[in-house]
Design a protein that fits this description.
551 residues; 25 strands; seven-stranded mixed beta sheet; 13 helices; alpha/beta; RNA-binding
RNA sequence: UGGGGGAUCGUCUAACGGUAGGACCGCGGACUCUGACUCCGCUAGUCUAGGUUCGAAUCCUAGUCCCCCAGCCA
């Protein structure tokens, strides 16, 4: 093995393209990402995008963005726009190669007539129900339509009249004439054109008949000279039809379809139908709700595109159905953000403390490191004063053994500031701790004790007088079980606590955070400034927490 | 009882007849001005039964289990 040898790609798709190129079956690779513009892209699409654009990039080819817009009743311009924005956000570029299946409606129509002329397609007058019944079942063969033997002339005439708009929706369809007894049901004279008196977002009212997926996809691939048509496993059964059409039409190229398993993730639903439902029924606030697995939602939550792509890559590409642990996603996000995100201090659930021996009215600025993983990120000043906020979780009046934080009589470090000792917990009438009286050791300024004494905990804090208030949205999984919908409707598995809102106290610098910027709140997690008015942060992902886990 | 596909640590994934490896999770430990990060270590797998072979996750045979397909959706 030579040292020059490229690292093995490790998945069958890259290997396939590599060998097709090496063995001269193609000069260069052309792939395509072909979404239907009927919803927002989600993390499952990120996998398809990674595969198609990733292969093109890896092997010096190109990837087309093609909208599979053959069903005008479901599609909208809003989705066309959002899909382009999302693909760009992931960092991919289709150059001049933006296409629409609707670009090919004229050609597809001509090819449909071509099929009719070859005696390979016919107009069927049966109702949808009748067609369904005569299609047979999984185990019983279908039976021929009474209209199957129509002459070429009659079929041509009827099909042209379908196109002219002489018939209402559902009155007739065009079917490929293949084999009503085929084991593969897709070959039992599949419908390839249907009457749809509907306005198309791009072709307007030019058409009232539309090709369906099977009659558009492979031909579109061929027209664009796509070499590798990569799709998910459920289209496996369509491949014989895909190839039958290419073999029987005057197409300029013969793309090859190869399937891979789609992405599934625990605690996550990746079905457009359900996601649409959650938006429509207001279980979430919109397509870009940070709890949604949509690219728009993940972006708003603060997930960097590079982390998302890394996750998709780590999850792997294979032909076996699988469900990836959401923990793998969190790990990818944390790994990226740990290196990239600047650190700040923020207190989510404030508990006021008063440093009794710190002079009233006095204040100072302490130097804090912006990112220990990145010295170039520099330092900043954080204001300190007599009254501070610490996290409620960081104090316990009667601590258990392994509690290292503050409790009456213990000493801890305030990060970048001083060692403090808790002297007294002040309670309200109900017995709740509402304030802590503490003292500090002036000799420990900056966080180190000259006498070398150690503390077990370092805590984050915010100066009460300087703190800025912010709404912080803490997101939890949208579902309460790893396999939402396994018992039926995923709506039943929706997590009622998927969003928790707290009013937090932040160090003042955070008021300048840019919308969309993800930062670390030390000891808490990664948070992203939201686009909503005011100072609002979304929790992207929490930090790993060995202490919480031990509880 | 039709057709198509799939089965490797708990999860995801490598291996292309020649040492079953990696990642995530979990569990220890070291380090630490984030109970984070980092580092070290541990745990743990070829669906079953036969066969071929010097040698099988890989090839053969027979099973088992799982997924997809009966839209005028994609």
């Amino acid at each position: 093995m030579s040292e020059e040898a490229a690292a093995p790609v490790g998945n069958f798709l890259w290997s396939l393209v590599e060998s097709d190129l090496a063995e001269g079956r193609h000069k260069s690779v052309i792939t395509r990402f072909p979404p239907e513009p009927n919803g927002y892209l989600h993390i499952g699409h990120a996998k398809a995008i990674y595969i198609n654009f990733g292969i093109a990039k890896e092997f010096g080819g190109r990837c087309h963005l093609r909208f599979d817009d053959t069903n005008p009743v479901k599609e909208e311009q809003e989705y066309i726009d959002s899909i382009q924005a999302d693909v760009r956000w992931l960092g991919f570029d289709w150059g001049d190669h933006l296409y629409y299946a609707s670009d090919y409606f004229d050609t597809l129509y001509v090819w449909a007539e071509h099929l009719i002329e070859k005696g390979l397609a016919y107009v069927d007058d049966q109702t949808a129900d009748a067609i369904r019944i005569s299609r047979g079942t999984l185990t019983a063969p279908g039976t021929n339509s009474p209209f199957r033997a129509r002459s070429v002339e009659e079929n041509l005439d009827l099909f042209r009249r379908m196109r002219k708009g002489e018939f209402p929706n559902g009155a007739r369809v065009l079917r490929a004439k293949i084999d009503m007894t085929a084991g593969n049901i897709n070959l039992r004279d599949p419908v390839i054109y249907r009457i749809l008196h509907a306005h198309h977002q791009r072709t307007g009212d030019a058409w009232c008949i539309y090709p369906n997926y099977d009659f558009a996809h492979g031909q579109s691939d061929a027209i664009e000279h796509v070499t590798h048509s990569l799709c998910s496993l459920e289209f496996e059964d369509h491949k014989p039809l895909y190839e039958w059409l290419l073999a029987n039409l005057p197409v300029p190229a013969f793309p090859k379809q190869t399937e891979f398993a789609r992405l599934n993730i625990t605690y996550t639903i990746l079905s457009k139908r359900h996601l649409t439902q959650f938006v429509r029924d207001k279980h979430v606030k919109g397509w870009d709700d940070p709890r949604m697995p949509t690219l728009a939602g993940l972006r708003r939550r603060g997930v960097p595109p590079a982390a998302l792509l890394d996750f998709v890559k780590r999850a792997g590409i294979a032909r076996a159905n699988s469900v990836v642990d959401i923990a793998m996603f969190d790990a990818a996000v944390r790994e990226y953000l740990n290196k990239a995100a600047p650190r700040y201090m923020a207190v989510l659930r404030p508990l006021k403390i008063v440093i009794e021996n710190y002079p009233e009215g006095q204040g100072e600025e302490l130097e804090a490191v912006n990112n220990p993983e990145d010295p170039a990120a520099g330092t900043r000043k954080v204001p300190f004063s007599r009254e501070l906020y610490i996290e409620q979780d960081d104090f316990m009046e009667n601590p258990p053994k392994k509690f290292f934080r503050l409790s009456p009589g213990t000493e801890v470090r305030l990060r970048y500031a001083y060692f403090i000792t808790c002297r007294e917990a002040v309670k309200d009438a109900a017995g709740n701790v509402i304030e802590l009286r503490c003292t500090y050791d002036p000799a420990t300024k900056g966080g180190n004790a000259p006498d070398g004494r150690k503390v077990k905990a370092t805590m984050h804090w915010v100066s009460a007088a300087h703190a800025v208030k912010a709404e912080v949205r803490l997101y939890n999984p949208l579902f309460t079980r790893p396999d939402p919908g396994a018992d039926g409707d995923p709506v039943q598995d929706l997590n009622p606590n998927s969003l928790e809102i707290v009013e937090a106290k932040l160090e003042p610098e955070l008021a300048n955070a840019k919308v969309g910027e993800t930062v670390q709140f030390e000891r808490l997690g990664y948070f992203c400034r939201d686009s909503d008015a005011g100072l609002v942060f979304n929790r992207t992902v929490g930090l790993r927490d060995a202490y919480a886990k031990a509880q």
